[in-house]
Amino acid sequence: MTLELKDVSLRFGADTHIYPTSLTLDPGSFNILLGTTLAGKTTLMKLMAGLEKPTRGEVWFSGRNVTGVSVRSRNVSMVYQQFINYPNLTVYENIASPLRVARIAEAEIRKKVESLAELLKLSPMLERRPGELSGGQQQRTALARALAKDSDLVLLDEPLANLDFKLREELRDELPRLFADRDCIVVYATTEPTEALLFGGNTACLHEGRIAQFGPTGEIYRAPKDLVSAQVFSDPPINTVTVTKRGGEFRLADMAAWAAIGEFANIADGDYTLGVRPHHVSPLARGENPVGIDGKVLVAELSGSESIIHFTMHGATWVSQSHGIHPFEVGSQAKLYADMSRAMLFDKNGTRVAA
Amino acid sequence: MNNKTINHAAWIFVLPVVALVAFNAIIPLMTVVNYSVQETFGDNTFFWAGVIWFEEVLHSSRFHDALLRQLAFTFTILAIEVPLGVAIALAMPRKGAWVSVCLVTMALPLLIPWNVVGAMWNIFALPDIGLLGRGLNALGFDYNFTRQPGDAWFTLILMDVWHWTSLVVLLAYAGLVSIPDAYYQAAKIDGAGSFAIFRFIQLPKLKRVLTIAVLLRFMDSFMIYTEPFVLTGGGPGNSTTLLSIDLVKIALGQFDLGPAAAMSLIYFLIILLLSWVFYTLMMRSEAQ
Amino acid sequence: MAKITLENLGHSYMESPQSEADWALKKLNIDWEDGGAYALLGPSGCGKTTLLSIISGLLHPSAGRVLFDDKDVTDLPPDQRHIAQVFQFPVVYDTMTVYDNLAFPLRNRHVPEADVDKRVREIAEMIDLTDTLGSRAKGLTADGKQKISLGRGLVRSDVNVIMFDEPLTVIDPHLKWLLRSKLKELHQRVKTTMIYVTHDQTEALTFADKVVVMNLGEVVQIGTPVDLFERPQHTFVGHFIGSPGMNVLPCAVEDGKPHFAGTEIDTASDKNLNDIKGTLQIGVRPEFVQFADKGVPAKVVKVSDAGRFRIVETHADDTSIKLLVPEGQGIPADDAYLAFDRNHTQVYRDGWIVA
């Protein structure tokens, strides 16, 4: 039960929505499509589901070419950002609906619906209608319906986006557990890097209709292939600036200089794009190779436990996200430290430079 | 993977509709096209006539007059019904028990068969026994729609406004209630008066729905037949003989099938053209 | 600009409220200082939107008074209160240009055209819309439209308070950072009183100088972000603020001291607990729990990678305890001991903090 996209692309007239994409998703895997609005997440899901037919390329499932096979004859479920349930059916009937279509015996249905309701904490509201439920409960009902179908492919299109922050946290915790003992392929679309990280599994970074990179989530976060992947997978946005390497030294204009050590010791001289994640920039000299940078403070956001300092430096706007409360006067000059041992370097084509 | 077979039986259910459309629209239309280029003397023998019927119709002053009357009628009722409909929709309550009362009252005229509307207004407006006719005369107006062309037009337009403004009201109302509350709240906070709210929020948001309303009312009023036929029969004289009435007179009254067919096609093309112009203009202003 | 006072404010959507539960807002007394940045934070249905509507004058309260600078405005309509509001979904006047949108509130108030022009250009500069002044507002992206909504508030010189109703809902995460810091920056520049309603703790804590936490129509705590983080007055605040929320553990009392899992727990308060009746709990945030050589015995059950840190879930005495482990620090494989930071560990009685 493997889903394969082979050079799939989608065009409408002159507009390319998905550039040729190849992707293999294994049974039982949890896969995340990460990208901004309009990056092509939903379109890619529709191609996987068969709701959209690719302009070129093929979709294979379990070693069978299913390109052009209608979604009705594939075993797919989908949960959307909006809470979509049958408004005139009770929660019980909503969850039971895919089972009724499959003509399963009544006793069997009852058993299955009740166990799903238990799992998703819906047992007390089985007799209510979706309109009488809170947003979180409505989305749980939609999830239960998707699970009841026992699909081979479950597509979740930003299902938590319309929920309260805390509810989101709660369901985010539960979701992977729901699929833990199933061998279906789960695809989860999100705009939030943190969400992708917490789910783990595999992540595909999507940018303007292309998959920049696909692989194990933690690996992509820590070792992105290129600048696009690093930018898609960074919240707050990754800080970038052009630096020059000459001999054994990096220079950031005439502001800062530091030794090219470790993996960067032997790379060629020239200009590079430096990428430093906001939590590796701190008002305190922390980490293995902190380098001081002078900037002008734009905004200081102090949440209860951390400080988020926005500052301009050599024409670029940088963000520092650090533990503890570090008050800064707006408009003042400040020294912040970037831990260069954690920094990434990208060449002119945006490819990450690694030893 | 569970394999469900695709249900090809679904196509069979579509067949009756295809057949119906064929009988209902395509075949009669083709017959009309056929008649419009032939001459017949009534014994079912036909001769090729080319475009002479089209030339004749396009040059006849009778057709010109009927077309002008038709345009005058359509634009008059559009000019009254659309603003009136929007005004009534604006005045209707958005919440509460009165909503359904208003909606049902508004929908009532739309439920009455067209020939009944014609007959009702005919009796209602009669100067000797009708409430409207007698009332107007009692107030000192010299009103008689069966004799005076002006009165006939007045009655015709009043009838159409009574019958069809509701359609505009219902469409506009549906458009109004779909505007999110936040827009009204923002406008209140920005200090906008009710005219500014209408001009900058309600009207722009109603644009789509009003396009539909104008199109529907345009097409319907341009093809109107039953009501004026029952009310005035096209009279007095030819003063209210609209295109559709004239067409029937030629086709069935005089049995001039060729000219009638040619006129039908021209009529059809005018409606198509004007609808297209309307639609394009309104969509273009939407896109800007 | 004005000080805002809410005096015994209450609201019910019912004609004649009977029980406590019929009130959407229950007896609020709040003072908001002139020029402050405030956030109203709570889950959906907590009454925060109701409260916002009452302040703006879109809703008349069932009880109590609203005062602006000690002047009763309870019966005044919105346009006479001199307030501005940014809604959840962007509200712009579609047919107008950006310029006309910004000028609209001034023109409605018959401000001379020369002053309108000056003011509009000044504000457009502030919110980075100068380049788009001539284009139709309809064509702008969601964040651009929200800026217009905000701009319509800023142009007026008579505004007492600008209110935000979850303004970042429809904004992509990477733009959220920018728009949020822009709001903060603007507040620091114009010093108008601002009230920001949200269910998102990050937005509330980073934007506001003072946060009002609400639940079930009541104010649970008003405090600075640091107060809320370090000394939540109620377990609800502890749970709702922080991600993950505060660990709340059952508390046993021996010799007047709090105990959990057979271990004595040092807390910030030295109070003898023998005299206190009610259900006792211990609250400690995941940020203040560490692995140690001795302390509460626990088992590691789940590790989630959040990039900057890892969230480790442990079980101790059948209770789940979460802790945050910074990037690069080790995590015991299975059995471990947990130590709580004494200064940030509190005891709660029936939900409320024991001082």
UniProtKB/TrEMBL annotation, chain A:
InterPro entries: AAA+_ATPase, ABC_transporter-like_ATP-bd, ABC_transpr_FbpC, ABC_transpr_MalK/UgpC-like, Mo/tungstate-bd_C_term_dom, NA-bd_OB-fold, P-loop_NTPase. It comes from the Bacteria. GO terms for cellular component: ATP-binding cassette (ABC) transporter complex, substrate-binding subunit-containing. One of its GO terms (molecular function) is ATP hydrolysis activity. CDD domains: ABC_Carb_Solutes_like. SMART domains: AAA. Residues 3-233 form the ABC transporter domain. The keyword ATP-binding applies. Keywords: ATP-binding, Cell membrane, Membrane, Nucleotide-binding, Transport. Belongs to the ABC transporter superfamily. This is ATP-binding cassette domain-containing protein. It comes from Stappia sediminis.
From TrEMBL, chain B:
It is a multi-pass membrane protein. Pfam families: BPD_transp_1 (PF00528). One of its GO terms (biological process) is transmembrane transport. The keyword Transmembrane applies. It is found in: Cell membrane. Coiled coil: none annotated. Keywords: Membrane, Transmembrane, Transmembrane helix, Transport. CDD domains: TM_PBP2 (cd06261). The chain crosses the membrane at residues 12-37, 71-91, 98-124, 161-179, 209-226, 261-282. The keyword Cytoplasm does not apply. GO terms for cellular component: plasma membrane. Its main location: membrane. Residues 67-278 form the ABC transmembrane type-1 domain. PANTHER family: GLUCOSE IMPORT SYSTEM PERMEASE PROTEIN GLCT, TREHALOSE TRANSPORT SYSTEM PERMEASE PROTEIN SUGA. Belongs to the binding-protein-dependent transport system permease family. This is ABC transporter permease subunit.
From TrEMBL, chain C:
Keywords: ATP-binding, Cell membrane, Membrane, Nucleotide-binding, Transport. The keyword Methyltransferase does not apply. It is found in: Cell inner membrane. It comes from the Bacteria. Residues 4-241 form the ABC transporter domain. Gene3D superfamilies: 2.40.50.100, Nucleic acid-binding proteins, P-loop containing nucleotide triphosphate hydrolases. GO terms for cellular component: ATP-binding cassette (ABC) transporter complex, substrate-binding subunit-containing. It is a peripheral membrane protein. GO terms for molecular function: ABC-type ferric iron transporter activity; ATP binding; ATP hydrolysis activity. The keyword Disulfide bond does not apply. PANTHER family: ABC TRANSPORTER ATP-BINDING PROTEIN, MALTODEXTRIN IMPORT ATP-BINDING PROTEIN MSMX. Belongs to the ABC transporter superfamily. This is ATP-binding cassette domain-containing protein. It comes from Stappia sediminis. The lineage of its organism: Bacteria, Pseudomonadati, Pseudomonadota, Alphaproteobacteria, Hyphomicrobiales.
